[in-house]
Amino acid sequence: MEKFKFLGLSLLLFGAANAQDAEQAKRAIDAEKYQNAKNNLKSLITSKSDEGKNYFLLGDVYLKQEEQDSAALYFNKGKNAKRDAEYNLIGLAHIDLNNGNTSAAQAKFKEVEDDMRRKDVEQYVYMGRAYINSDKPNYDKAIAILKKALEKDSKNAQAYLSLGDAYVGSEMYNEAYKAYRTAFNLDNSVLRAKLQLGVITKNTRAAFPEAIKEFNNILAIDSKYGPAYRELAETYSLWANTDTSKYNEYIKKALDYYEKYMQLTDYSLNSRMRHADFLVLAKDYKALEAEAKKMQELDKVNPRILRYLSYSAYENGNYEGSLTAMEEFIAKVDPNRLIARDYLYLGLAKLASTVSTDEEGNSIITDQAVFDAAIEDIKKAAEMDIEITNEYNAIGKKLFKQRLYGPASIVFEVATTNPENRNAFYDNFYLAYSIYYDHVNKSEEDRKLNLERLMVADGALTKVIELSPEAQDAFLFKARINQYMQTEEAYVEMAKAYDEYVRIVSAKGADQLSDGERKNLVEAYSNAGAYYAVIEKEKAVEYFTKALELAPEDEYVKNELERLQK
Fold this sequence. Notes:
The protein has helices at residues 2-30, 34-47, 52-64, 68-78, 86-98, 102-115, 122-133, 139-152, 157-169, 173-186, 191-202, 208-221, 226-242, 247-264, 269-282, 285-298, 304-315, 319-332, 340-354, 368-384, 392-401, 405-415, 424-440, 444-448, 451-467, 472-485, 488-506, 515-535, 537-550, 555-565, and strands spanning 355-357, 363-365. By secondary structure, the chain is mainly alpha-helical. The protein has a two-stranded antiparallel ribbon. α14 (247-264) runs antiparallel to α15, α15 (269-282) runs antiparallel to α16 and α27 packs across α28 (515-535). The N and C termini lie far apart (130 Å). This is Tetratricopeptide repeat protein. Pfam families: TPR_16, TPR_19, TPR_8. Residues 1-19 form the signal peptide. TPR repeats lie at residues 157-190, 522-554.
């Protein structure tokens, strides 16, 4: 009997010790000290191979680091453990969800649920997280299963934390905010919940000071909580790109905070990759190139490093190197891991490598097939992530300056498909601007086939005028574009647009006009005057008279005025 008592006590002590070790690993995972957590869990597996949850937690870290094969290896080992083996079925179900095999995942979840005891809750939390963190997330399923957890334990802080994540995925931010707040109130050691309150505030893009205050409040509780420094870095980076007048000040703070985050996590390959992702966000491409080379020293086969080499090479002027690295990356990586920015840089590198200049300094395309493929890559990037089109303004302007007006118009047109485009005014204007100059440079025969593009340009200028009713150049180019359409309806629109240009510019007063504006007024008076000569002789005389005041030597204006006054 004494032996049995002693054995029972030993098992109790073992369970408590393992729980403590597992909690330590969980804290490391939450603090994003993944290498630390992996080392801890591997040590636990070696010393306590019968504890299934350790395998699951280790596999889950590998999933976070997008190393699915390694995750599956540990889940499959763990499902045969004597204790808590069912957690590994949740991990394997997560992989099923990643692979789109929903029925297999649900079968595994049901097997776990059927074996759960009355007070078991944590399994539901991890099932919910699997739905949230899957490559193909299902937030509705996550919400439903996390509510089951809360039915069993209404004070489970981790369930509320995960519920908040599911609500964020569903864009139900008010509900998410309440869930995170409840999680932290229930257990103020759950700093991740408080962190997410700041993240929601940060992502409004209008409350950066409030978000920063939230993250600093976390550091007042635990000055070594690394994720808060990462969020501070990302907040200052976003603020820098929103308030460009303080870009240098804020981006320096962002980089400093991220370095602090790195110091508090680790300098493993995965941490360096997170750092590289941030350097892309911060647009520090010199540092990105240095980081990518350090990563190559650590791991010469990981294809993701090629992504950073491509991005940095392009931004640092090595276009051929960028193209080579990106093509190699795409050839090696799982297609499901490709992101919009990969296709954007693939397209940009192709563009740069196929544009040259002739003896007269004009831009020429050296390989039309590659150039066309580049445009398709840039379109594909926008299809994958419409938000990336906010960066297309700079790409289009570069093409425009190279006098590649047709391709520039395509880039701007893709950008204007984004309903939340932050450059809507300029992208629409340059879309029309590019189409106009592309049309002017076409042969007479090709111009006849270009009516559809002129109509796109006209529509873009209508949008510009909606955004800024006094944009004089929008009216000027709208008039020119309609003149080229050469239809009765278009001539009516031409005259209206010239009238508006005249109204806006004339209001400045003759002594305030630039030489360009005087020249454009002569154009407006002359071309609109020619139209009014047919339908409204008095207005035509008025316009030709004003044109002659500005350009007394203009023979066309003189002759038309004489003809109308006979």
